[in-house]
Each structure stands twice: as C-alpha cells, then as structure tokens.
Amino acid sequence: MSSRIILSSKNQISKKFCLDNDKKSFDEATQCGARIYTCSKLRSKFCFLTPTVTNLENVLDAAKVISSICKYNFKKNKAYLKMSDTIIYVLSSSNGISIEGDYLLDLINVHCLSGNVIYSIIESNDDSMSTISSSTSRNSSLKNLEKYLEKKFSNVKLIPLNNPQDGQRLLSKLTQQKLIKITKTFSRPYLFAQTFSYLNPKSSKSTLKLSGYLRGIDLSPNDLVYIPNLGTFQLEKIEQHQFQRDSDGIIKTIVDKTFIPDPKLQRSLVFEAEQDPMNFDQEQTWPTKEDIQQSERQLKKRVPKGTSQYQAAWILSDDEDNDSLNQQNDFDEDHQEMMTDYADDLQSIKLDKEEHEEDEEEEEEEEMDELVMNPNNYDEKTDLEEDKQTLKKLKEAKLDEQFPDEVDTPMDVPARVRFQKYRGLKSFRTTKWDPKENLPSDYGRIYQFPNFRAMIKQIQSEQEHNQHKQDHAQVHSYVTLYVKDVPVSRFEPGHHLFVTGLLPYEQCLSVLNIVLNRTNDSEIILKSKERLIFHVGFRRFASSPIYSQHSNGVKHKFERFFRPRQTLVATCFGPITYPPASVLAFKQFPDGRQELVATGSLLSVNPDRIILKRIVLSGHPLKIHKRSAVVRYMFFNPDDVNWFKPIELRTRWGRRGHIKESLGTHGHMKCQFDGILKSQDTVFMNLYKRIYPKWTYEPLSIQQQQQQENNEENMQ
Questions:
Q1: Nearest C-alpha neighbor of 103 from the set 590, 584, 579, 534
Q2: Phi/psi at 262 (nearest 5 deg)?
Q3: Which segments show compositional bias classed as Acidic residues (predicted)?
Q4: For 100-120, how does the pLDDT look when each residue is reduced to its tens digit (9 = 90+)?
Q5: Which end of the chain, N or C, is surrounded by fewer C-beta atoms within 10 Å?
Q6: Distance of alpha carbon 618 from alpha carbon 407, whole angstroms
Q7: Does domain 507-610 have CATH number 2.40.30.10?
Q8: By the 8 A CB rule, do 481 and 190 touch?
C-alpha cells in the first residue's frame, strides 16, 4: 500500500469528499494535527496536513522538498511545502486568487519547484454557486483562472471539487501521478513526523522519538539530522517497521529492523573550528624562509633613487605601462559611453522623481484626512529613531549612486595614514591578489574544502553506492527515529515536525556566496552588513551579508547598497550547504513583520572569494597645457603626493595618466595624460582594499544558539 502526504486547507477534503462513497475506508487524526485517510479501493494511504495559517517559517520548512505540488491559498503559514508530496491549492470559482495567494505561488515557484506538475482545485460552495448560476459564466471564470495560472506555471490543470465523485477522482489522480524529483535541492533523506514524543519530558534535554515515512534517499544511523527551530542532532537508533493485520483485521506496526550507529563512524556535532590564539603556526599567511627569499628575488626591479619598498611595489615598467593601457581599452570605452549618457539619465530620473513626488503628495493628503481624526495617537505608531536611520540610508544611497565610491580626502589627517590599508591596482581584472593574505581571526573558526566541486561529485557517488545497503533505513519505509539530546520544547497542539538528514560536513560553518535577485515588489534599499533572514536550502539563519558584483574573474567589486531590480552576490558566514539550493532573503522589521526582498540560489561555499572595496579620490585641473595639467584638491600636502605617485590616474572622460611631480606645499601636482585634457574634466585615483564578512551568523535554533553563546563566552 502506497502512502502520500497531502497538504490541504479543508478537513472536508478528507472527510466529506472522500469518505462518503467508500465504506471500507477510514481516517484518523494524528498527534501532529494531520488526518490519515486509508482508501482500500485505491490501496493507498493519504496524510492530509491542515495548516493553521499562523507561522511563516513552518510553511517554508515543508516547501523545500516537495515532489509535486497543488496550490493552496494562504500566505502567512509557509511550513508545509517542504515535506509534502502534493499541495492542494483551493481556489474559489467566484473570487479567484487573492493577493496573498498570488504572493505564495511566486514564493513556492522560486524556492521549491522546477518543472513539477501543478494542480488547481476549484471549490464551489453554495454561496459561489448562487453567484455563478449559469454554466457559461462558470466556465468563463474557470478559463480566466487557467489562463492566469498558465502565465506563471506550466502544465496547469483545473480539477473541479463540487461533490464526492470529484473527490474520488482527485484521490485517484493523486495516486497515479509521478513524484517528480526537484532539481533545486541536493538529494537527502527527510521525514514528516506523524507522531513524536520525548522519552524524558521533565529534563532539559531528552531523546525525541519521531515516527513517519522516510522520503528522499536512504538514511544511515551515523548521519546527523536537522530539525527546524531545534537544531542539528545525532541519532541514537533507527527502527524500521512493517505493517501486519491481526486476527481482528486491525493493522499494526512491528519492528522489522533496528539500526545502531557506529561510534567510530558517527558524525560529530562540532560546527566551528577550534582557535588557538597562542599558536602562530595556525596563521595561514605566515610565510616560510624559502617563500621570503623567492619573493625578494621576484620583486627586484629598477626604481628611482630614494624610493621606498612600499612605493616600489606600485611602480610599473615601460612594458607594463603599455600593457596596462591596452588591457583597459574596453573598460575605457564602456566608461566613456556611460558618462556620455549620464546627463540624460539624471534628467530622466529627475522627471520621474517629480511625477513620483506629485503622487506622494496626493497620497499624503488622503492619509492626513484619515489620521487627523485622532491626532493624539499619531506618534504612538511612529518610531522616530527608525525614521532617522532610514532617511540617512536613503541619502547615502542617493549620494553613492550619483558619485560612485567617491570619498573626500581629509584635510586634518594625512591621506597616506587615512588610506594606509588601500593599494592601487595596475589592472582590476589581471593583477594578482593573494587570497590568503591578512585573513581576519574569524576565518580561523570556519572550514574550507580544497576542491568544493570534487567534494560534491564524491558525495553524489557515495549516495549511489550506499543505496539499498543493509545498514541503512530504506526509503519509503515507515521508521522511528530516536534523536539524542534534543532540548525539551513545548509544542502547540497540531504542531508539525520535519526532520532532514545532513550530508557530510553540512554541520560545519564556512563562507557562503549567494546570488540574489531583488523581487519586483520590494522597493527597499538594502545596505551592506544589514541584517537579513536567509532560507538556504532546508535551513534558515540570520546574518548581515556584504554584497559584491556577480562577475567573472577572481576579484569582485564591493557594492555598498543592494538596490531594487539588481542582481548581486551576498557573502556571509553560514552552515555548509551543497548546491543546488534555492535561497530566500527576508527583511525583518522592528515589529516582527518580515518582507521578502530577494530570491536566488547558492553560488559556492568559498572563503577565498576576493571582494575589493574601491574608493575614488578626486581632483580638479587648475592649469592645462596640451597633455599636461596641474591638479589640485586630491591631496593637501606634498608628502601625500609623493606617496601615491606610482598609482595611475584616470579622468571622467576616459583619459589616463600619472603623477610627474609635486608642486608647492598645498598638495598641487603636475600630471601627464595620454590625451588633451578638457577644463570640465575631473581626475580620479582608484584605491582598493579587501573586505570580509562580519561574524554575524545567528542560528535560528535553540541548540545552536546555546552552543554559540558558550563558544563566545569561552573566547572572552
């Protein structure tokens, strides 16, 4: 007898529509609030989950490992879409799809599906039947719904659900459909717990006993399991059951096999590497004597007399100068074309802004008409500090958009001191940058693969080799998991528990690089290092990522803001996950409300991704004579001019040059360019430094939060 997990919004689907015509069938309520319906006619068992529409995270926890899906009309509760075989989305033939339902359809499609068959169940109650009296109008409404759904998904088929016969046809269709494998997640075992209990509920930690059907792939007792909101745990044992019918005709479960973990092979729960601050051999950037001697031989070059070693690292030979100009031709043309259209873009932005301000004024007038009725309570719902921070962020984003990466040279601090961590690059694309240079101490707490792609292939081959092994619990079987040392939590009635098996090293922390696309409905400007809640694959956590351009090459430019309709790469600390893995990013507001701001997928798990922050120092030509010019306002003392002399200059209109000498005592400098300079042009100098994500990883589970707090206390 086969078993299917069905997510529905109405208990009547299992009771009214399915039981009336099948007297031999029966249903029962489980501890988790689901209803198990056994259909003897179809020789199948269905588990109907009825969500309470209260928890956003729980619905998404079920959505990530769907085999096939029907659409279900709810928004807030996103828990049941990962573990369901089919999700029934109940639509009204008179009202159609609500805004919340449309939002959820997009969310499911991005996070869970890839070419799966989608069903739509049309529910027609007495009220809707009176509204749509004629069959012609009913058919037209169904066609409109079908056209709307076909724009979003493929293979859409509307199934009517108006009588018990329709319910029987629905169950028959669900039994016959194939469970399509999802390509947005890596193959792993998972289970929906039909029953669960603590063996010792009075203690702080106890063994959690869960029973349900094993999905995905086989599960080894040596594997770790992940339970949303609780964390990652080891298994005490696994019991595999068989169903037998006794003399009274009652079906009972009997333990067929028991799998005990091997202490030598069982995976550890350690997710953070140990740091020894007194061990200098652990420092990845510590060079050997041979490395120092070899680097000194490679760095010897002819330089002007009196040049320091730091300045000599920037000096280019004549051949390198020519190569640098040739390598940057493509960039120069693109940059000049961009600056040519700059004025037109600003004009169009200004016109759009004026129209937008007019619309905002009308909206504000309407709002004031409503709010003026109770002016005393107006400030109660207004957070002045939050408004100030938002206004500050908007001003910074607008300034960065108009003058990208430009900073003012300080007058009270020497530029060579203020920007001592920055360096110049001959070519952003081709100049080498050592990924192990000057790593922060937080990088000693993470793990890195020598070859991440090779590890993925190795795990895939191991999965194929371990299928149907005698020491693994078999997929599609009814099993009972005994999970060790789970924090005792009080679950609300009808709470659902989902268990996912972890692959090797997925409990460890590393640096995640995630490709994110801003959603069409989100207009919030996200600043780098701003806290977001991520749903990466089957797990979720909070972190403050840094953003960089999604480009080819080894080095990637840092982006200060993540603007609407933009595609960037977010880099943050997080648990290792093997791609493919879909990603959702939510912005959480002070009142607890969450808004979906970006969607995407996991790009790589690579701490060696080089993210360079660029700053641009600007100066203005004072005197111009053919290809020479006197530039001021970039520096304010001759020592800074001589310090940054080896770095190449560029202009807004695409010219390139270098500093020849310092003039006077106020930071003026004589510069030579590759063409005649215009008086309205601006001179720039690009400086770069590598930046790293901050250790802001926040596990959204009880067990990992406690372990992380203990680690931080020990470090202090």
A1: 584
A2: -90, 120
A3: 355-370
A4: 767 777 776 776 654 445 555
A5: C
A6: 8
A7: yes
A8: no
Burial of 339 (0-12, 13-18, 19+ CB in 10 A): middle
CATH code given to domain 2-176: 3.40.50.300
Q: Which of 138, 50, 51, 155 is nearest to 96 (CA)?
A: 138
Q: Which of 113, 117, 116, 128 is nearest to 162 (CA)?
A: 128
- For 200, phi and psi rounded to 5 degrees? -135, 80
- Is residue 686 a contact partner of residue 424, using CB atoms and an 8 Å limit? yes
- Is 190-270+468-501 in CATH node 2.40.30? yes
Using the Cα atoms of residue 399, residue 400, residue 403 and residue 408 in order, give the sign of their dihedral. positive
Residue 385: is it exposed, middle or buried by C-beta count within 10 angstroms (0-12/13-18/19+)? exposed
Statement: residue 662 has pLDDT above 70: yes
94 vs 121, 129, 141, 159, 321, CA distance in Å?
Answer: 13, 8, 7, 15, 72
In this predicted structure, what is the pLDDT of residue 371? 40
3-state secondary structure of 650: strand
In three state form, how does the secondary structure of 492-556 look?
Answer: CCCCCCEEEECCCCCCCEEEEEEEEEECCCCCCCEECCCCEEEEECCEEEEECCEEEECCCCCEE
Pairing of strands 86-87, 2-7: parallel
Helix (H) or strand (E) holding 632: strand 628-632
Of 440, 446, 444, 442, the residue nearest 271 (C-alpha): 446
Separation CA 133–CA 145 (nearest Å): 18
> Between vectors from CA 325 to CA 320 and to CA 331, what angle results, nearest 5°?
135
Contact (Cβ atoms closer than 8 angstroms) between residue 607 and residue 448: yes
- The answer to whether the CB of 228 falls within 8 A of the CB of 58 is yes
Q: Is the pLDDT of residue 124 over 80?
A: no
Read off the pTM: 0.75
Beta strand pairing status for 649-651 and 683-690? Answer: antiparallel
Q: Give residue-wise pLDDT tens across range 11-37.
A: 445 454 454 455 555 556 566 667 777
Residue identified by tokens 């001019």 is: 641
DSSP codes of every residue in 141-183: HHHHHHHHHHHH-SSEEEEEESSHHHHHHHHHHHHHS--PPPS
Alpha helix ranges (H) inside 190-317: 289-298, 309-312
pLDDT of 41 reads 76
Place of tokens 């933009």: 566
Classify the phi-psi angles of 438: left when phi > 0, otherwise alpha if psi is within -120 to 50, otherwise beta: left
Could you tell me the residue ranges of all domains in the chain? Answer: 2-176, 190-270+468-501, 507-610
Distance between CA atoms of residues 294 and 276, nearest Å:
29
Distance between CA atoms of 629 and 678, rounded to whole angstroms? 10
The two three-digit tokens of residue 228, written as one number? 């949303």
Answer yes or no: same fold for 190-270+468-501 and 507-610.
Answer: yes
